[in-house]
Amino acid sequence: MSGVWIAVGGLAILLIVGIVVGVILYNKSGSTTDTDVTTTTNTENSSGGTVVSNTGGTVVSNTGNSSSSAGTVVSTDTSSLTFMVVSDIDQDVYESLATLSAPWGPAYLVTAGDLDYTDPDTKGPAGHAGFKAGIGKHFAGLLAAKRIFPAIGNHDYDMASGDDAAAFIEYFNLKPGTALPGNVIVPSYEGAPYYTFIMGNIQWFVLATTSDLGGGGFSKGSSQYTWLSIALTASMANTAVKFRFLVNHWSPFSTFRYCCAGSCEADLFVFPLAEKGIDAIFTGHDHGMGRYSYPDESVEYQVGGKSYGKLAGWGGMMAFMTGSGKNDGDRAEDSCEGSVTAASGFTVHAHHDVLPNSQGALKCTAGAASVKFEYYNTKGTLVDTCTLTRGRGRVGTRGRESGFWR
Predict the structure, then answer these.
(1) Which end of the chain is more exposed for a tag (fewer CB within 10 A), N or C?
(2) Model-level pTM?
(3) Where are the beta strands (DSSP E) in 353-390?
(4) Which of 384, 48, 388 is CA-nearest to residue 202?
């Protein structure tokens, strides 16, 4: 009889072992209880969902979108994520930029605008020809995946019939209420779109500070100003967001023509960007590539002989001039030559206004605690690099400085 019980006991043990092995194998194929798998709730689009890749596998749950414009994180993925930044792109430079960036395999593209330089006389409010021939043709995959995130530039709304952003808004699907990555929607706006989105551990804030299209621009107390304040407050409470970047076409700082001539986007100075959480700002409008450390708040900011005073709440921020999509080095258009000694309150790490280095794009690689920025010209040469890292207190930077005054 004891032999029977031994046999039965042995069978029970084998059965238990089999069940355990089966569970382990099941988990390795994608169970949410396996520690190698990231469970991701996709709230981007209620009609379908975007799969977020992660080493070891990803489980995606599409739960629709019921968001506010402030935003919440959609992914706990901290693996490496590559993205691209470039602005002010001539029609005949798109192909070179696409060729340059193809080996990078960017997950998304951020741009500070001026994506359609075709003659305004040929453009109407509903015309998409310039967008289709340029960014639509050469970055079709990212466009189809809704992974191009533009700020509007003046050439994007300069139409034969007058200033009109309708074509830009429609082509890039930026109507109010549109769902974006990060469980957010495009907020209601007047004239030009502004919005936020989250990719990985980075939250982006895309502005439209122009007042050409109505809506009050970015003056203190404007709808856009209030929206940014609320969105940043919500973002700072989101522990999954490690970096916060701002995009605007017009630059508050640069060592190129417009800012040197006194046309810095001074409206932004009324907002304490760094104090509210912004780590870096990306702009265009000027043509060339630049990288700057934003001002020590105790020093008066001056450029091109014009003083903007001390900028409270701006100390420690990084800035990138990304208007590097032009086809002519001379279009850097009168950098601050002769005005260098009048510039103060910020540090210039890179300034490129002559071909080949004035034309290229930023390759950006985001990790769990750092973002690496590498600027390549369209010939494939690495021109400038720096890394933003998270630590105690403010974001730190380290980088190889390139020659910047020609």
Answers:
(1) N
(2) 0.79
(3) 360-366, 370-377, 382-389
(4) 388
Kindly tell me if the per-residue pLDDT of 243 is higher than 90: yes
347 is written with which tokens? 């540090």
Who's near 2: CB < 8 A, 6+ residues apart? none
What strand order describes the sheet that includes 108-111? Answer: 148-150, 108-111, 81-85, 360-366, 370-377, 382-389, 396-400
User: How is residue 182 written in tokens?
Assistant: 């990060």
Place of tokens 């043709």: 137
Give the E-state strand segments of 225-354 in sequence order.
243-248, 280-283, 289-293, 301-303, 306-309, 318-321, 347-352
Phi, psi of 263 (to 5 degrees): -105, 35
Q: Where are the beta strands (DSSP E) in 123-215?
A: 148-150, 158-159, 162-163, 179-180, 184-185, 195-199, 202-206
**Residue 223 predicted with pLDDT over 90:** yes
273's tokens? 């960007």
pLDDT tens across 357-389, in order? 999 999 999 999 999 999 999 999 999 999 999
**SS3 assignment, position 217:** coil
Helix (H, G, I), strand (E, B), or coil: what is residue 32? coil
Is the peptide bond between 120 and the residue preceding it cis, with omega within 30 degrees of 0? no
Rounded to whole angstroms, how far apart are CA atoms 120 and 98? 25
**Which position has the token pair 């032009």?**
326
Q: How confident is the model at residue 309 (pLDDT cuts 50, 70, 90)?
A: confident
How far is 18 from 220, CA to CA, in rounded Å?
67
DSSP labels, 257-275: HHHHTT---GGGGGS-HHH
Residue type for position 366: A
Cα 163 to the chain's mean position, in Å?
Answer: 25
**For 246, phi and psi rounded to 5 degrees?**
-115, 140
Distances in whole angstroms, Cα of residue 156 to Cα of each of 260, 281, 309, 341, 345:
23, 20, 32, 35, 32
